[in-house]
């Protein structure tokens, strides 16, 4: 039994306007594999995780984690609260 691996692939793809197909071509997998990864239906191999992180030029731990990532909204709200406290 393997642990679930959470990821932010869809967030990073959206940020740069990349399709699943384009990402799949860059890392050498089927576009369906990217969909499976994004939904958490498939855990990537170490090699695939590193390839995906290289595409986005970020450390692998920014894309993949054993614990869920906070939602984008929660992250933004947290930053806004921090900014309000400082200002």
UniProtKB/TrEMBL annotation:
PROSITE patterns documented for this protein: HTH_CROC1
Coiled coil spans: none
SUPFAM superfamilies in the cross-refs: lambda repressor-like DNA-binding domains (SSF47413)
Cross-referenced SMART domains: HTH_XRE
Residue ranges of every copy of the HTH cro/C1-type domain listed in the record: 9-63
Keyword DNA-binding: yes
Matches recorded under Gene3D superfamilies: lambda repressor-like DNA-binding domains
Annotated InterPro entries: Cro/C1-type_HTH, Lambda_DNA-bd_dom_sf
Statement: the UniProt record of this protein carries the keyword Membrane: no
Domain of life of the organism encoding this protein: Bacteria
Keywords of this entry: DNA-binding
CDD domains per UniProt: HTH_XRE
UniProt cross-references to Pfam families, sorted A to Z: HTH_3
PANTHER family documented for this protein: DNA-BIDING PHAGE PROTEIN, TRACRIPTIONAL REGULATORY PROTEIN-RELATED-RELATED
Protein name, per record: Helix-turn-helix transcriptional regulator
């Amino acid at each position: 039994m393997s642990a679930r691996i959470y990821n932010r692939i869809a967030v990073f793809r959206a940020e740069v306007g990349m399709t699943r197909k384009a990402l799949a071509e860059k890392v050498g997998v089927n576009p369906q594999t990217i969909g499976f990864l994004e939904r958490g239906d498939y855990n990537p191999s170490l090699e695939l995780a590193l390839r995906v992180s290289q595409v986005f030029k970020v450390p692998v731990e920014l894309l993949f984690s054993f614990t869920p990532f906070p939602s984008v909204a929660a992250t933004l709200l947290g930053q806004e609260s921090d900014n309000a406290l400082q200002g």
